[in-house]
Design brief:
Layout lengths: L35 H6 L14 H9 L5 E7 L5 H11 L5 E5 L17 E4 L2 H10 L5 E5 L6 E2 L9 E5 L8 H6 L2 E4 L11 H16 L11
Helix pairs in contact: 3-6
């Protein structure tokens, strides 16, 4: 695990030129969450400071105690470059699970290694995704983003707390088979001349709408960077 290339940390404009922490100074802390290699060599990963020097497994276990009630699903028929970016945003907003529908291999470049901290499931098609979501207890509703007539406005609809947002490929959008199995569709209000917005941008808007409705912002679980 430690020989793999680390993803670069996003530098903050007001922060130091080198982000992260160097080797641990002083006596090493005790506990199974600490990674001896990171303690010895330093931790420059793209993680919040709370998780500095933690093993990946310990981070995932801690995140599992706080994951939110929404899922994110992306159709993958053309190896869309947006998929990685959507996965990264799903990690930032702490999605319960991420679902890849279609081709098993997907473009991970934009994920910045955040997929390692998510539960990523593969489904052969949208029908298999819908069957899985409906089998959960309690079941999860499948809502697709589709700007065709009949879609509800995301800005005014009552979002379910247990929901999976399904996004299609950049350009064609949701496939016909996906539209057939969705429990409903929604659109994002637009006011300019373009017919649609970028798929990863739409995903971020949808996830943040869920956060505004349901996430607990009162404690330290809402990171500030």
């Amino acid at each position: 695990m430690h020989d793999e290339e680390r993803a670069p940390y996003d530098p903050m404009p007001h922060g130091p030129p080198e982000v992260g922490l160097g080797p641990w100074e002083g006596p090493w802390p005790e506990g199974e969450q600490w990674d001896p290699v990171l303690l010895r060599e330093g931790d420059r990963r793209n993680v919040v400071d709370r998780y500095r020097y933690w093993t990946m497994e310990a981070i995932v276990a801690d995140l599992d105690t706080r994951r939110h009630g929404f899922h994110v699903a992306i159709e993958n028929w053309q190896h869309d470059f947006n998929i990685g970016t959507i996965v990264r945003t799903a990690n930032a907003f702490l999605a319960a699970e991420v679902h890849i529908v279609g081709n098993r291999r997907w473009n991970r470049r934009g994920a910045m290694v955040t997929d390692r901290y998510q539960h990523v499931r593969h489904h052969a098609d949208a029908a298999a995704l819908a069957a899985y979501l409906h089998s959960l207890d309690p079941p999860v509703r499948l809502l697709g983003i589709d700007n065709l007539p009949g879609s509800l406005h995301l800005e005014t609809m009552d979002l379910p707390e247990r929901v999976c947002f399904l996004f299609g490929q950049e350009g064609p959008g949701l496939s016909e088979s996906a539209r057939e199995v969705c429990d409903g569709t929604f659109s994002i209000a637009q006011f300019g001349s373009t017919r649609s917005i970028n798929a990863s941008s739409a995903a971020a808007i949808a996830m943040h709408s869920w956060v505004r409705a349901y996430a607990d912002l009162s404690g330290e679980d809402a990171w500030r960077g």
